[in-house]
């Protein structure tokens, strides 16, 4: 597995045969399909922060078309999607490899998969690292609101760093002033999209996606600065490129099934309101100035297709008992999976052990912290379980 050299340390690669797989509905494992490439372009560009009745109706219709497209194009597959079924697939992989117990590393969504596996098969866990934890006890609406707050903190951290180091795209010399410039940019794209690549414009929704992508990783902050610098001058091409990377759009206009699979799996797992009005109220609350004024409404509304999902929820409450110790790694300023989720997941696992990394970015292992890497690899290779609540300092 070529990606193992990037994801895993030398000692881990020496100790284990590394196996990765596309979960059902993803990539080459019978990928779920919902819309044509042209329809996905239109779906991604939809106004995701509706502030008029007409915009809200358009968003609701777009979400309904997405769910209906999944049913029409992948109807036989949809009832069999979801994390519970993927966890069962994972155990079949374990059996096929002749392993008595599983050693597992899961990041981001992979933390939910690992936790569900431990719930279903607690006695088959040898070691499990869950890095960048999802909180399975929260609805997607609440997850979206809390993610938005995390991205707001990351944007503030970027502005603080940029103003301290220099070379910023902002006219203001204060953090609050810089953030208000970003808000102004988003308001302008809501009224009048920016120039994109000559064929597509940069709507407000695309601009939001173009900001979110580089906030995943501190190493991408220079790209965010250049994208903002150009966008303030009316050129949205770099924001569009960032958005394409986040949604899985290729240069030739085709898409991977990343956007469709993410929504389909989340919708299959459930925990979604069925009334659009519920999303509207939650979006308004999330977008309050003291919470997430730039990202709150968009990230809450983004799960609206699940309101029209044709199948019931497949993921029940999560409580794990009888497993070997499971290491949960949480990053203090993770914009995608807030640190509080790591605390919550570790508590739900029964045998969960929490490692806190005091840094930025989404997930910690392999991100440059020698402390985190040594703890994770010592646990995976030799079974050395750290003290619950251990802390690794941030870097950079």
From TrEMBL:
Pfam families, sorted: Abhydrolase_4
Q: Does the keyword Acyltransferase apply?
A: no
> What Gene Ontology molecular function terms does this protein carry?
hydrolase activity
Q: Which UniProt keywords apply?
A: Hydrolase, Signal
Q: Has the keyword Transferase been applied to this entry?
A: no
Q: Where are the transmembrane segments?
A: none
Ranges for domain Peptidase S33 tripeptidyl aminopeptidase-like C-terminal: 293-392
Family recorded in the similarity comment: Belongs to the peptidase S33 family.
This protein is called what?
A: Pimeloyl-ACP methyl ester carboxylesterase
> From which source organism is this entry?
Nonomuraea rubra
What's the source species' lineage? Answer: Bacteria, Bacillati, Actinomycetota, Actinomycetes, Streptosporangiales
């Amino acid at each position: 597995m070529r990606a193992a050299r990037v994801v895993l340390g030398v000692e881990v690669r020496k100790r284990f045969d590394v196996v990765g797989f596309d979960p059902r509905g993803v990539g080459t494992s019978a990928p779920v399909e919902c819309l044509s490439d042209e329809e996905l372009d239109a779906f991604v560009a939809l106004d995701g922060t509706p502030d008029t009745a007409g915009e809200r109706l358009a968003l609701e219709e777009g979400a309904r078309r997405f769910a209906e497209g999944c049913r029409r194009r992948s109807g036989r597959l949809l009832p069999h999607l979801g994390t519970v079924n993927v966890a069962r697939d994972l155990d079949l992989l374990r059996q096929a490899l002749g392993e008595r117990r599983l050693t597992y590393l899961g990041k981001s969504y992979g933390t939910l998969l690992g936790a569900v596996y431990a719930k279903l098969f607690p006695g088959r866990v040898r070691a499990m690292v869950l890095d960048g934890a999802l909180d399975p006890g929260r609805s997607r609406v609440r997850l979206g609101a809390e993610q938005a707050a995390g991205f707001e903190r990351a944007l503030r951290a970027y502005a603080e760093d940029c103003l301290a180091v220099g070379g910023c795209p902002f006219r203001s010399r204060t953090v609050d002033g810089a953030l208000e410039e970003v808000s102004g940019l988003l308001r302008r794209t809501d009224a009048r999209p920016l120039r994109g690549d000559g064929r597509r414009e940069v709507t407000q929704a695309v601009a939001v996606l173009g900001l979110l992508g580089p906030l995943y990783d501190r190493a991408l902050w220079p790209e965010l600065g250049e994208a903002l610098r150009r966008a303030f001058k009316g050129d949205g091409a770099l924001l569009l490129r960032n958005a394409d990377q986040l949604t899985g759009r290729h240069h030739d206009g085709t898409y991977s099934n990343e956007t469709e699979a993410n929504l389909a799996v989340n919708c299959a797992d459930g925990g979604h309101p069925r009334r659009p009005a519920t999303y509207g109220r939650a979006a308004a609350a999330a977008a309050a100035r003291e919470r997430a004024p730039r990202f709150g409404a968009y990230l809450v509304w983004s799960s609206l297709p699940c309101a029209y999902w044709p199948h019931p929820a497949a993921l029940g409450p999560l409580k794990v008992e009888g497993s070997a110790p499971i290491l949960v790694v949480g990053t203090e300023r993770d914009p995608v999976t807030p640190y509080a989720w790591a605390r919550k997941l570790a508590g739900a696992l029964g045998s969960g052990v929490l490692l806190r990394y005091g840094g930025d970015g989404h997930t910690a292992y392999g991100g440059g912290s020698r402390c985190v890497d040594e703890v994770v690899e010592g646990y995976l290779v030799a079974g050395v379980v750290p003290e619950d609540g251990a802390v690794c300092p941030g870097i950079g």
